[in-house]
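As noted in the main text, all predictions were made from sequence alone. Below is one such record, for Cytosine/adenosine deaminase-related metal-dependent hydrolase.
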Amino acid sequence: MTPRATVVENVAVAPVAGPEITRGYLHIEDGRVAALGEGPAPDVPGAERVDGTGCLATPGLVNTHHHLYQWATQGVAQDATLFEWLTALYQVWAAMDAEVVNGAATAGLGWLALSGCTTTTDHHYVFPSGRGDLFAAEIDAARDIGVRFHPCRGSMDRGASDGGLPPDEVVETLEEILDATAEAIDTYHDPAPGSMLRVAVAPCSPFSVTGRLMTEAASLARDKGVRLHTHLCETLDEEEHCLAQMGCAPVDYMEKLGWLGPDVWVAHAVHLRDRDITRFAETGTGTAHCPSSNGRLGAGIARVSELLRAGAIVGLGVDGSASSELTPLSGEMRQSLLFQRARYGPTALTARQALETATLGGARCLGRDDIGTLEPGKQADVVLWRVDGFRSAVDDPVGALVLGPPPPVARVMVAGRTIVEAGELRTVPQDTAAEAGATAHRRLLELAAGQGHTVAGEVHG
Ligand SMILES: [Zn+2]
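Prediction:
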């Protein structure tokens, strides 16, 4: 049972908007933030009282890019480039069914919640026919874990015979994609404030999708009033592919197709030219920055500090677990800070900027004004981080959160409902979530082997 009101007292608060609180309170009522301030907490009759001594409260983290099904294929093609890695995995993924997706998503979403994530997107783009309702399978998992969910109906329609990277067996036809995407929006999308589920339209990437699908997907999304997501400028291989096959650089190509704008956010944006940064800022196009994945695949690192300086929107993402194994979203704040400083120097990104990209920046990528900060009226998506114990030698709690490895999580709340407490999932038994992921892994490898595909021998690229 979620209490109608909760008061967290004796707590430090980094609300992301407004002044930070050294030792004060956070009052939650009916799933929203009612008040926060310095000093003793008000008396709220009937409220659950939580002692936040030793904790820092922040807005819940927002994950802006993921592929939950990839939980089932972690640790493969360990030394591969993106294109080599994809080529090793496409046909294994083609064997997935709804059971695999539900198990992988349960583990992946549980893992995210444990790292302070309260809202996540997912980009699912492999839909082998006759394998059950894969989109519904991940939505069921999100409801069980209790996070806010923005599943993106992904797609690929440009197989190898059309010059694309994926084998023909894993692509769908344009008509199938548009029908299924419209149906997903009509069935699940909830635009209301405080929504727990919003759908986005997400053709996979310039090298796996036709230009026609990109334009038709954009008009479908705009007709329905939902957002657009894709991969863009992840690697130099992609840039070469675009120059050779489309005759222009990736951002120019996407601009021609109507894919820059305030309703678009793209994953990675590593290889941007100076004028691309300006256009992202001017058009309100968001970037899902995935530093661990970019590092794992040796893709390069996004020009985040330049994007932020230009006024562009940047959020953080863990990316799929097969290109960024077991990445805690909380740890991506530190990764982004370290990578930016390695590239630009010690003032490139502050701990507070890293926290802002992980919260408010992510909310803006997803087009939400009801989450991402702790202000009266916003959704009560809150994380209490333990910054005592070994971390108590750092006086600045935001520094303790971002500069070192992620602190333990005392509590995670979504709309005031506790989904993690004392570092343990409260919605689904933690062992059950972990086992669901392991079972999904074994099942997918068996299904793939049955179709003659294996990842054996691919372990080292
Ligand atoms: Zn991705």
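The longest helix spans residues 430-450. The mean pLDDT is 96. These features were considered when defining construct boundaries for the mutagenesis experiments described in Section 2.9.
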